[in-house]
Amino acid sequence: MARTALVTGANRGIGLEVARQLAREGMTVILCARDSDAGREAAARLSAEGGDVRAEMLDVADEASIRALADRLAGAGVTVDVLVNNAGIYPHGDLITMATEKIDETMRVNAYGALWMTQAFAPGMIERGYGRVVNVSSGAGSFKGGLQGPPVYSFTKAALNAVTMVLAHEVRGDVKINAVCPGWVRTEMGGSNADRSVEEGARGIVWAATLPADGPNGGFFRDGKAISW
Q1: How many CB atoms lie within 10 A of CB 7?
Q2: Distance of alpha carbon 90 from its chain centroid, rounded?
Q3: pLDDT tens per residue across all 229 residues of the chain
Q4: In terms of DSSP bridges, do strands 28-33 and 4-7 run parallel, antiparallel, or are they unpaired?
């Protein structure tokens, strides 16, 4: 049976490559982007490559936008089997001097957005008895690693990791929620000096999105291997 995957922040970078790889796995892909034109253009490129891909407008920092997307898909009879919470932002600056508005925006995109998306789609997964949720995190959010990264990015990714662990305790059946660090990837966010290609970065996310029934739940991974929270 063909599965349907939804990928946030998927008009470029890692999200676009995850959408491409999931489409090559035979999934129907819902490619979500805050910029609707960019989303349609990205979906058209993947469709031209042979993928079954459609674009949807989504701002993960806006809970109303998430509800609207869930309502549109439900109205169209679309169910989501795989959710990849990829959207994220990477602001610089010291946390002690950063404006509350910027901290709030980062928290909404990097942590609350994944929580709200999971709240919107995981209940259906539980009801149907199958689901995979992948939260795209970072080693910068690892306590063992010292939260080394731009401060607000690091602490919001640590929050995302906590969300992952808590939600994983709440699912049942063949539903799994995991966090994945793609590594330092050559994207607009990662920069040209990063040591990994988008193909390499996406691979571990796709691994978690396609786990078998006996695969892990509630873990933190890079390249399919567990890493420390």
Answers
A1: 33
A2: 15
A3: 789 999 999 999 999 999 999 999 999 999 999 999 999 999 999 999 999 999 999 999 999 999 999 999 999 999 999 999 999 999 999 999 999 999 999 999 999 999 999 999 999 999 999 999 999 999 999 999 999 889 999 999 999 999 999 999 999 999 999 999 997 777 767 777 878 888 999 999 999 999 999 999 999 999 999 999 9
A4: parallel
In the chain, what are the domain boundaries? 4-226
The residue annotated as part of the active site, out of 90, 112, 130, 153, is: 153
Q: Output the DSSP codes for 34-54.
A: SSHHHHHHHHHHHHHTT-EEE
Contact 103, 191 (CB under 8 A): no
CATH of 4-226, one of 1.10.620.20, 3.40.50.720, 3.40.605.10, 3.40.50.1000: 3.40.50.720
CA pair distance 63, 41, nearest whole angstrom: 25
Residue 90 bears catalytic tag = no
Q: How many residues are recorded in the chain?
A: 229
Segment (H or E) for 7? strand 4-7
pTM across the whole model? 0.96
